[in-house]
Specification:
mainly alpha; 6-stranded mixed sheet; 8 strands; 59% helix
Length: 641
């Protein structure tokens, strides 16, 4: 079903945009056309999902019909304009080094693709809310907020999960869920190659920018997961590309795709607001300075904003209806992410701590003296600022210990060599300021401003390296173009180092490893991969699953905490729209608890997070009382008595 409906619609979306000329009277290049096709497909997917959700008919039949109609409409459009079809082959002409680096990129892409296809979603956030919200939507037939102890399932932007929703319904499982991030990873590479071209880079340096992105350790590890940092990176990079295009030509087409990329970025992850803001200010400044406040500029700018808002209208409405705010969550919840103090000293503190996360020597290179070299100036800086290095007003979670080795994990790993390279390129910028093109300087300055705005507004957390991915992807053209001033051989040498440094992330993924053989995904059995990040709780979930099946508990209640792993329950008993099971949260005491159900849900059994509600000895729902009948270290099962 998946191949029959989604793939043709995607391919036809890419082909359809090739039948139209740009405002400059030119046909789309292959990469430019691919980006346009992706955004057309993404917009269609968002509209289809919201439309069917409004009717509460998000299911296999309705999605199949919707994509069949879209396929037919696109086919008719393409047939009508068939004489205008102009599919350009890649315009990059390569010599031997370029071919070799493309082969390396292909090798890097292949490994996470296989890993993602062979591994179940097993990331922590995926188990608590990314994947859990998808199965709730499938069960309910709509995206509307539902009773949940895990409010992130509601208020976090949903686009990446919308794509997974379609994949999961049309394929009948989560086999392809990891491919959303992998596809976005490829999109990031296309985007940076186009930005490098806009900044004046030739074919070789466009390829070099692709290698820079392909070798990001955090990108490699996330490419086989169901997080959303690569997805938002792709949309942010695409937005920057369209703004660079708009700088050359204020066309309605460019404004339209800028609006789509902006809308999909903020529909994917909240950090997008911070990352795109400096670019919007820059664009407004240069256009107003050059063009003035013309009627055309006002119309097209409003159209861009409207496109972005329309894409997010459904999510905003759902958040407002439950939480009273378009961004969702309680006031306390929203406040915990932003700094309690906004000042230059807080900015310096967060900049230093976020940089240290990437400068922690990667696994295998960790060394005491290097750690001390980082530790002393960082602590001294905080003493001079009068701030505790773990000040609760500026720290969300975790501690900066200067001795931890994070390993090859998608939640923690930094981009060590890329950070060193970016610092070295900044030195090139300083010492060769007069020779660096003005647009490259501006571009680098805006990337820096995006990072500074992130540090100024958001509290530091131990998981920040994954949130920095859009910054590192945007750094690719900047670093490569500055490094090109030292010559092509220097660029090639740097790329070889980045590739070698990327091998541990490719092969030794802690969540989904290829090596060593004893832990390889090829040698794992049962549910060991599902619980790879928390093997100690596997026995609890497997025991509870056996109990549910044995006792034929069809209706299952959940009394969980804010960070309880929920998705494994759905995965183990294979809950979907055709299964007899129904799972719902009960006794919810956050704002979603006010959601009124037509009929009180009376579960056959209740699963309780023993670490959060371990003191509970009896549960009452309506007139039915429940008592514990099975206890495990992580979950307790309650049944009526």
């Amino acid at each position: 079903m998946l191949i029959l409906f989604l793939l043709p619609a995607f391919l036809l979306s890419c082909l359809a945009v090739q039948t139209y000329k740009s405002a400059a009277g030119e046909w789309s290049s292959s990469r430019d056309g691919l980006l346009k096709g992706i955004f057309l497909f993404g917009a269609l997917l968002a509209v289809v999902t919201e439309g069917l959700s409004a009717l509460s008919i998000v299911n296999e039949v309705s999605l199949s019909i919707a994509w069949l109609l879209i396929t037919l409409l696109l086919s008719g459009l393409i047939y009508k304009r068939r004489k205008f079809i102009s599919v350009n082959l890649p315009e990059i002409k390569l010599r031997t080094p370029g071919h070799l680096f493309l082969l390396l990129v292909g090798f890097i892409l292949f490994i996470p693709l296989i890993v993602g296809l062979l591994s179940p979603p097993n990331n922590w956030d995926s188990q608590t809310y990314h994947m859990a919200r998808v199965v709730h939507w499938i069960q309910n037939g709509h995206l509307a907020h539902y009773l949940s102890h895990i409010t992130r399932q509601h208020y976090q932007p949903p686009f990446a999960e919308m794509v997974i929703l379609h994949l999961q319904i049309l394929s009948g499982g989560d086999r392809y869920a990891n491919l959303v991030q992998w596809g976005a990873w490829m999109g990031c590479m296309v985007g940076v190659s186009l930005i490098t071209r806009q900044l004046g880079g030739n074919s070789f340096y466009q390829i070099a920018s692709v290698v820079f992105v392909a070798t990001l350790p955090m990108g490699i590890l996330q490419a086989s997961s169901t997080q959303n940092d690569l997805v938002v990176s792709f949309f942010v990079v695409s937005f920057v590309y369209w703004l660079l295009r708009l700088r050359e030509k204020l066309s309605s087409e460019n404004f339209c795709f800028a609006g789509l990329s902006l809308g999909l970025a903020i529909l994917t992850k909240g950090t997008a607001y911070l990352f795109v803001f400096p670019w919007l200010l820059w664009f407004a400044f240069i256009v107003l300075k050059r063009e003035g406040l013309s009627a055309k500029l006002v119309r097209t700018s409003i159209a861009m904003a409207v496109i972005a808002l329309v894409l997010n209208a459904g999510h905003y409405y759902r958040n407002i209806s439950v939480y009273g705010h378009p961004l969702g969550g309680t006031a306390e919840e929203r406040a915990k992410y932003s700094n309690a103090e906004f000042s230059p000293r807080v900015l310096l503190s967060n900049v230093s701590r976020n940089l240290v996360l990437h400068l922690e020597a990667p696994p295998g290179l960790n060394h005491y003296y290097w750690q001390q070299l980082l530790r002393r100036p960082t602590l001294q800086l905080h003493r001079s600022l009068g701030l505790d290095i773990h000040d609760p007003r500026t720290t969300l979670a975790g501690e900066l210990e200067f001795k931890q080795v994070f390993g090859n994990h998608e939640d923690y790993i930094g981009n060590f060599f890329h950070t060193i390279l970016a610092m070295g390129c900044t030195l090139i910028l300083i010492f060769r300021w007069q020779r660096v093109p003005a647009l490259t300087k501006v571009y680098g300055g805006l990337v820096l401003l995006s990072f500074l705005l992130y540090c100024f507004y958001l509290r530091w957390q131990i998981w920040a390296p994954r949130l920095h991915l859009p910054i590192f992807v945007l750094l690719a053209p900047y670093c490569i173009l500055l490094l090109s001033m030292a010559g092509r051989k220097v660029v090639s040498s740097a790329l070889v180092v980045l590739f070698l440094a990327a091998l541990p992330a490719l092969l030794l993924n802690e969540s989904r490893p290829l090596l060593p053989a004893s832990r390889s995904i090829f040698n794992r059995t049962g549910n060991s991969l599902l619980f790879a990040n928390r093997p100690e709780i596997a026995h609890s979930f497997e025991g509870v699953k056996e109990y549910i099946v044995q006792k034929n508990c069809r209706k299952i209640g959940l009394l969980f905490g804010e960070d309880t792993w929920e998705y494994p329950i759905w995965s183990l008993i294979e809950v979907n729209q055709k299964s007899p099971y129904r799972i719902e949260h009960i006794l919810v005491d956050n704002p979603s608890g006010k959601i009124v159900k037509e009929k009180l849900f009376q579960p056959d059994c209740i699963l309780v997070d023993a670490n959060v509600h371990g003191h509970t000895r009896q549960i009452t729902l309506g007139e039915i009382r429940y008592r514990p009948v099975m206890t495990t270290p992580y979950l307790t099962v309650f049944e009526p008595f």
